[in-house]
Protein 1
Amino acid sequence: MSRKRARVATTKFHKYTQELASSVQRARQAGCLVRDDGVIVDVVSSNLSPKQLALVEEVKQCANNLEAMGGREEYQRASQLNTSLFSTSKWLMGLMGSWGWLEGLKVVDRDGSDSRRDVRILEIGAINTQLLDAAKKTRLRRNNGDFNGGIAAKVERVYRLNVRAIDIRSTDPRIEQSDFFALPNPKDAYDAIVCSMVINCVTSPQDRGKMLTKIFNFLRPGGVCFLTLPRLCLHQSKTMTRAYFEEILTKGVGFEIMKEATKDSPKIAFYVLSRPMNLSPVKCWSDNFGTVRPLKNGKKFRNSFTVILSQAEVERA
Ligand SMILES: C[S@@+](CC[C@H](N)C(=O)[O-])C[C@H]1O[C@@H](n2cnc3c(N)ncnc32)[C@H](O)[C@@H]1O
């Protein structure tokens, strides 16, 4: 697949999934039984009003558009190509290396001595196994510490990482097929959550807010989220600006932005967000977070990205 075809596929997928989600919502409001994927349930067309029939047709058309572009399969193939062009895992491995996390996190044992434990990582929307591979990577170490192998050598992991990778549609047996929204709270909170180019695939602004709040909840205090999204979402939407997105992340959800680790490429914004050690000193609810409002003048915008937070959810976090 060429880069151009991959770009077209991801753009079409986002457009058609948004259209499908809105048409399903409209059809449900009119009393039609429609599944999220656009399949019409138990419909006898003679029982439908003309308005319902039109809405059902609209849903079918949106589902057909999605199928015709190759659906989620084509989208994931395109995303795999995009990922191979900018490696998110390289970026976050570099950062974790600079923090000393790749050798594991220090814990003080009951007797006062130090040991190390694996870094617990959740990768949401994993379409490749780069992080899983890094966690499995091994080397031979001789007892005296050199790497020549030999009889006294033992196999050890290179990085102390414990990675759980999930995707709603898994492309590898090691990637767990799960919806992030359906995961129960973890027994042990995560040290790091990777959410790369996923929030822009979530179709409703409310669910995007829910995703950010749930990530915050799943992290231990001091844990970090590696969040990436297309810059287009921040710069080409009438209802979003970069400053407002950062207000949502900080004052809304409660994250601190690690400015020194956050960066931009020409197309992608790379955020490193940390969950503060204690109650978030920056969190401060504004009713704006619960609504959508135009933030820019003008008519032509290539994107309609926005985020809505639920006050009850962020207050529980
Ligand atoms: C654009 S791809 C990004 C993949 C990869 N993380 C990257 O950086 O290139 C988005 C992925 O997120 C997955 N995804 C979207 N919503 C999800 C959810 N609620 N739970 C788990 N995975 C999700 C999609 O299936 C898709 O594979």
Note: The mean pLDDT is 88.
Protein 2
Amino acid sequence: MNRACPLALIITAAAMVPAVLGLPGVAAADARLQKGPYLMDVGQTHAALLFELTEAAPATVTITSQDDVVQTLPSEESDFHEVVATELEPGTAYDYRVEAGAATAEGSFTTAPAAGEGPVRFLVAGDNRTNAQAHAAVTDAMRRRGGEFVVNTGDMVANGAVDEDWQELFDVERELLRDTPLFPALGNHELYLYGVGLPGFLKYTRVPTALGGRETYYGFDWGPVRFFMLDSNDDWADTESDQRRWLREKLAETDRSETIAHVIIVLHHGPVSSNRHGGHPDMMSTGLLQLFRRHEVALVLSGHDHAYERGDAHGVKYIVTGGGGAPIYDRNDPLPFQHRFEASHHFLAVEADRERVEVTALRVDDSVIERCAFNRGERWTCVRPESATADFVPSEPVSSTRTDDGTEPQSGRGPSILALLLGAGVLLAALAFLARVVARRRRHRRGRHD
Ligand SMILES: [Fe+2]
């Protein structure tokens, strides 16, 4: 028969007191911040604050505006917290303070402006996985530039199933995301492998729901701009997929909106790219760009290829921006509709009002790759890097084979000039060989007759 030690019983009973009384235990009191706090799903009247603790503990988030306490939000004991402040005012700056266990943290955010109001400023980057040092350089440059929110074109982590990779993301971007809401598109690396990583994406992200969709594809409005954050990992050969039907329906709704001036599509695998991965064949063969054109989509932002590329395909302006930190790809098979390509780590700073969208592509040393803009329904104009003035002039494709009537190749990747020259060379050599064979046969025939 076991006899319990009286001292052990006393220690055990003492340890149970906090739980019985609903008080944080010793472990909870020692809890520190593991990830965050970081901002997601910020809208006109709400904001979500997410953070992970080293131990489960209850938390309190205090929202203030001009030093007045607006809300005090308790969160039940857990090692992961999603705290949502509601009933906020549009276009208003707030501060917040997180208290949990031994952890405290402070930050700030600004809610989205009232419907249709602007101008708005935001940052775009993608493919920041794998190289923390390069990722940090891009992130620091983004912080220096500043913006109301960050759009990520996907592949935020090397492997969505590996918690250390999520930790690296939130370590590198801790200060940026503490004060700047993140709106991510789902990359292929978040799914690694065969969808095993998806629970990590679902755990660490919270996306807006006002426009429907799912956690892997969604939309949101910020001032005069509506964003559709698509899941490019979906089956884009299926024109009746749930996502495709949702997209068509929401684009049609947006056409009738009086507050939305620009639609921006964000997705990881882009319809077109001249780099290593190329464009998405199923998106091209099923007319996705033509759908965008019909609904006057202002801009398509993608990643997956680790470089900067800007162009205008089938009348739809696009930018591939995958230079957030992952190893840079320098392959460039210039598409007939490509205007600019650069293989470097970079990000975008975008400003938009009701009439105009201006995009500045920046390297990590704050130098400008290019500064381009367009008015609603009009073409790209850019400030020439070599120009002494800041005048915007029309931007042209690097290739002269582009036509303006939408008759560009259906393929996402056009043949390179080198490939065309090689092909022509092989054809000429074959013709010359054939001519020599025919001439030899004729001589042989004449010789026999002679
Ligand atoms: Fe990717």
Note: The first helix runs from residue 6 to 20.
Protein 3
Amino acid sequence: MTARELTAAEKTGLITLAGRLTGPEHPLIDSPDWLGAAREATSLLPRQLLGTLRAFRHDPGADGVLLLRNLPVTAADPLPPTPGVPNSVERVPTTAAAVIVSVMLQLGEVIAFRNEKSGALVQNVVPVPGREESQSNAGSVLLELHVENAFHDNRPDYVGLLCMREDPTGDAKLCTSSIRRALPLLSEATRRVLAEPRFLTEPPPSFGSLGGVRPAHPVLQGDLDDPNVLVDFAATHPLDERAKAAMAELREAFVETMAAHRLRVGDLAVVDNRVAVHGRTSFTPSYDGEDRWLERVYAHLDNRRSRVDRLGGGAVLN
Ligand SMILES: O=C(O)CCC(=O)C(=O)O
Ligand SMILES: [Fe+2]
């Protein structure tokens, strides 16, 4: 997998960059002003990092994941306790928020979805009491492999997950698999079935009627020698028995070729949401402020393609 550890000097550079995006003159992440300032600041990322991001955008590699390490998540002050409430988001710019947004802005336009975490651009991925069993990032049971917001026509092209606090038990691992690794394990017949519109993907309940009834879609899309994948093993339903068997074979191939990442503080995993699926192992939260905490930011490549979903031309999609 493509992994790069930032040097101490690069880390210091990022803290300086984040300084331009935090403080009293920057009260709110979710404002055109702040996003504009972040868009200007992103060109000041360390030069080597800019090169790494540009290369990943060109080709996400066999794993479809870029792992950046040693990013700053605070300037100097200690990290606050892990939030433990549902739909927790970051509103006020912090070092971590400035860093993840600046990096994601090199891959594309940063976006969010109105019906998910109130449309906030920087979202907290934390376990929430009472949600243990849910197939969402608030849960702590195994989170099935999925393409992020697979049901949505303008789903993100990239998902960034920045580790703020490690899981103290060490059990929680981000799992990723790519269709580039899984494809060779699939039979020709299975590939053909997966390339046909024999699958339906449900929107999560939070999207309500806006999700609507979605048309049937293929799981493998584009050039079948190097396809994109569109599947969520908790939300995609095969429409017939052969499609069901093909999906099961695909899941097995993903599990066989899966990478499990025990994220450390300052690790940013960027998942290419066309080529890779992701999920998480189960773990046991203690809800004492010390639980695992990631920040999540989405980006997509074509702002014009999504304009129809972005009311007023902002960063939030319906
Ligand atoms: O907790 C994780 O490692 C991944 C959660 C996830 O799928 C997400 O936040 O999109
Ligand atoms: Fe996810």
Note: The first strand starts at residue 2 and ends at 5.
Protein 4
Amino acid sequence: MAPTPSDKKKKRQTVAQNLRKSNENKENVIPCTPSVSNPKSPFFTLRESRLFNVTNTPKRGISESPVDTTPRTPHNVYSYKKREFTGPSCEKLSSYASKTAKDHTKNVSDHYQVIHNSLLIELMKQTVCERCQSKWNGDLATANREGLYCSLVFTCKCGHMIKIGTSKCCPQTKMRDVNIRCVIANLAGIGHQGLAKLFGILNVPPSIDDDHYSHTVAHVLPSLRAHQQNSMSAAVEKACTESGSRQLSVSGDGSWQRRGFSSLNGVAAIMSSSTTAKVLDIERMSKKCSTCIGALSIKHVSREKYEAIINKHNCEMNHTGSSGAMEVDGIYRLFERSQHLYNVQYVNYIGDGDAKILPKLLNNPPYDNITINKIEDINHFSKKMLHRLQKIAQDLKQTKIDGKNDMMTNFKYYYRQAVVRNKTNLDEMVKSVWAIWKHKASTDLEPHHEWCSPIFCGFTKAWEEDKEYDHTKHSLPLAVMNAIRPVFTELASRATLNRVLNGSSENANESFHSILWSFAPKNRYSPGTIIDVCVALAVLVYNDGYQSIIPVVEQLTGGEGGYYTRLGMERFDKLRVYYEHKKKRKEDVRAKMSVEERKQQQDDDEQLDDAYLPRAY
Ligand SMILES: [Zn+2]
Ligand SMILES: [Zn+2]
Ligand SMILES: [Zn+2]
């Protein structure tokens, strides 16, 4: 006889009661929410928690703790601690946070649990089977598995089956939440092969197979790209507001996934040149296409299939020629499309030493009636000093400068400082560069400090204080100074220095590229589409912080992003702001210290040798 609906209801109640009872038994509790009873969140160590802003829970210092029941207001969500030394990251991230203040942290059970099968069976054994009404006793089997998702079937001895899936279906696709997250895991620099290793060691079934993974990447990419484009468009508008014009100063740089010119993939990026530099546009360049190469294997087996694949695919190859030409072509492409894409023109270009980009921009002007100005990158420019000195050191093996790499690096540093400090004044710039040579060539008999500044010159300082100064330890031998004099004649000339007048640096590009290649490491094989995923993630992280990835996850998985995803991204952003602060503070302390040290240790060779102490400016 079939059970009546009320019978069914009763049975369900019994099961529920049994479950509840067994959960009360402490030894067998399998907690379903994180550490609600535990005052310390497992996600943060106590030390880390001290780094963060304390708005809601001053004592513990983590406003994100699951036990924190204080209701959040837009003002105390995502705020960064006010600190004395802040930089561009803090500014960018705070600005993003102020736009997105939203409270999503209530659903503390919105996350995955890693649990061993034997514990699930144990849990079931503490329940009563709905059908046979005796203690459940049976088996657990996996009916269906797709990457980290699986469909579990608990079968009681009586034959009664209970099925559960371990991850939800995402909107507009049959893909599972957890597998989509596996693609976004590129954020950790882990691709498909990396996941296989990670899962292997964690004793978790292998991730989705190659085909499924590529399929998931293809599904995730359009959303990621849309968010990336929004971020870049917003950055363009911000740059226009800041400069009060739609003609922008930008820096441009290319980089390759692998060192050298054999790399198959590279990117070219244009960034705004303001203090809070952001990526405005970027192009991934590939010399080969993984689909084209993959399809070759079936070319001889089935010509039809091969052609179907080739005709259908979106080819990744967008660059012919050498890897070295990638940068030039890529940057040029970005200039060309700026009007069409953003209605802006890049009129001042801060580029590195690659002399090929500017001629291309000048010979094939991307804009009508506009000549693009090149401003040399100061960092790259000052490396000339190092290279010239190294060459001389090679020629003169016996000189004292040979083997003194530090000394040569210091000369580069002084040179850079002379340029940076006199950025807008060519006469002063020329004098300051010569002052380096004259200072180092000075002896007690022939002091030449007339162009020195007391800020870095021990002699001038001692003279001002009416003290004695001993040159013997600090000056380099005259033979060395004469040998390197031609370098100064060239690099301190008005013609050379004129190129960095009003200069700027490409530091921002370097820092962006390092984020990007940490997501797509050089030692990892990555087809173009994976580089695209990494480019999108890197642009989002660089421009707006890790938290800007949450809306992408929300959109793709149709949820609220997940409790620990939110917590994690917030944490990374806070750490980024904290480390920036720490670095700035250190630099400041060091600059102050070196002045002090110079006072006390004027006779110390190493110190005096570097009366132009790094960061003493
Ligand atoms: Zn049963
Ligand atoms: Zn192709
Ligand atoms: Zn001096």
Note: Residues 1-5, 19-77, 598-617 have pLDDT under 50 and may be disordered.
